[in-house]
Amino acid sequence: MVDNIDESRTEGAALAASIELDKDKRGKARSVKPLRMLLPFVGRYPLIVALFLIFLAIATVMNLGISFAARIVLDCGLVGDKELPESCMRYAVGDGSQMGAYFKFALIIAIVMAVSGALRFYFISILGQRVIADLRKDVYDKLTTLSTEFYERIHTGEVLSRLTTDTTLIESIIGSSFSFALRHIAFTIGAIIIMFFINMKLTLLVMLIGPLALLPVMLVGKRIRTHSKDSQNKLASASSRASESLSAMQTVQAFTREAKERRDFSEAVEGTFTAHKKRIAIRSLMTFMMVSLGLAGIVIMIWYGATEVSKSKASGGQSGMSRGTLTQFGWLSFQVVSSVGFLIGTWTDFLRASGATERVMELLEEEPVITAPDTPSILENTQGAVAFKNVSFAYPTRPTEQAIRDVSFSVKAGETVALVGPSGAGKSTLFQLLLRFYDVDAGQITIDGIPTHKLTPQNLRQQLAIVQQNTPLFSGSAMDNIRYGREGASDADVILAAKAAFAHEFIEKLPEGYATDLGESAVTLSGGQRQRLAIARAILRDAPILLLDEATSALDAESERAVQHAFEEMSKTKTTLIIAHRLATVLKADRIIVMEDGQIVETGTHVELVKNNGLYARLAHLQFDTA
User: Ramachandran region of residue 27, left (φ > 0), alpha (ψ -120 to 50) or beta?
Assistant: First the structure.
């Protein structure tokens, strides 16, 4: 059981490490055009989009309004009645009371801006979460329809990374970056328009300062991204190494390799630190250059503005700028420069999200190779007669190597037929073709005389129950794993199936019996226990055709004998196909088909085949005589 746990955890660690490494190697698209493919998902929620835009507009107007409030307070609220400029007279509410009114005005604007900003954030965040939830569901729905051929082309780790990492990148754009970018764009446009009305010369000066302050980003930004990616890759490598060694700690300690693992991890962590240090040094230099250039430009702008304020005082307010106007202009110009810097920094995120969108949409655009015909036949009251007629097949990943060559045989309803032969003979491939995980290259397969390609995959597979060699189980309880064979089965039916598979006794001994959580892939069970659960699942399915692929390979001799008896009882009412390397499990089969190199080389009963002195006789001699 420990071996099974270690093996499963190692596989899980390798998959997690694969996703982590893949995450940090995500490239960027050359443009943001692929993001347009998200519009149909966003368009499903027009009300949320409309509310977001409304509150975005209000928040932007209020943000700009804050600058006017500050200007009025400085020009009108901090002077006595005798010094009140004529432009402020329309805001006055009485002798000595105007200052409070001006601050109340600013406070109202601030409150409205805060409320609208919060609602803007709420609706765009809800939209982002809703779009990503829909996107993930649509992708997963698509993945469940794709054929086995697809999973031969693309690793499971890559698929999961697209389903998780890539959609997370998209979520960050829709839920935050896109909102902030729109806010900064709207504010920048509005601010520049106001600034032009205040002072055209100063506005042109600010528009010149912006590119100068952002010059360092363009000069060293690429180097920062390079070092950032390098540090991320090194961190992922360290995490991957730690995950693998920790999940296989018994193996590490058994081979006394603790010191080596510590050394390898230490080197990976130090490499991460070195890469981060280089990135931080370049980032610090860039920050210094941006801040110094930006502040120098703003100081020059304020210097010029202060000169204009002096002119205004000297002329009695007839020319130049007021203190409030200079403050408003300075605040707007600082926000404009900051907004442009944010937009340039965000552009990389948009490109990464654009690349992620392309990869996710590739999954949605995939089409299953195995499809239902336009007018499918329907299997009802299936008897279970199976026939292979001149079937030939080569796996899509190995098109020049035929796995099955001109295979023909038939199985009567209720008959038990065993498939034996050396590894790679094509036995499991016949099961995959019968389940229509692949379509044959030549010939045809029929059930009750109906070609399988004329059936829907769902209708075809409902006629079959399979016990697979690798015994795949799921996290959840023992009850849930057995009930996976037939949704809606009662607890009593599940327990009967478990008893038939001789699994009831060990399940009852679990801490919570049938309700015990078995962990991921049921790693808390031994190989034999897991196999008996899979057998119970197939028994519960109660399909007319039973496929057994090395179904008792992980059982001890006593359990195998008991389960074999259960299969014999089931076989009396079902068509049964058995794949077995241990010939003792197929001695009572009605017929034994011997395969080699994708072809049938012998057919007969055990006694007949031993007398033929062919391949089966040699295999029987090795197993029985040696034993």
Answer: beta
**Which one, of 368, 411, 361, lies nearest residue 386 by Cα?**
411
Q: Identify the DSSP state of 318.
A: S
pLDDT digit string (tens) for 506-552?
889 888 888 888 877 777 787 778 888 888 888 888 889 999 888 77
Per-residue tokens: 266: 């230490």
- Find where tokens 């509310």 sit: 51
Lay out the sheet containing 450-451: strands in order across.
402-411, 386-394, 442-447, 450-451
Nearest to 536 by CA among 496, 491, 585: 496
d(CA 584, CA 562): 13
Pairing of strands 442-447, 386-394: antiparallel
Burial 353-371 (b: 16+ CB within 10 A, else e): bbbbbbbbbebeebeeebe
| Each residue's pLDDT tens digit, 162-215 | 777 788 878 877 877 787 888 888 888 888 888 888 778 777 877 776 666 666
CA distance 436 to 147: 9
Query: Helix/strand/coil (H, E, C) string of 526-551?
Result: CHHHHHHHHHHHHHHHCCCEEEEECC
How far apart, in whole angstroms, are the C-alpha atoms of residue 18 and residue 39? 31
**pTM for this predicted structure:** 0.71
* DSSP characters over 88-153: GGGG--STTTHHHHHHHHHHHHHHHHHHHHHHHHHHHHHHHHHHHHHHHHHHHHHHHHS-HHHHHH
pLDDT (tens digit per residue) in 109-123: 888 888 988 898 899
Bigger pLDDT: 530 or 223?
530
> 527-541 vs 2-24: helix axis angle to the nearest 10?
80
CB proximity list for 67: less than 8 A, separation 6 or greater: 191, 194, 328, 331, 332
For β-strands 402-411 and 386-394, DSSP reports them as antiparallel
First to last CA, the chain: 26
Q: Record the tokens describing residue 25, joined without a space.
A: 């190697």
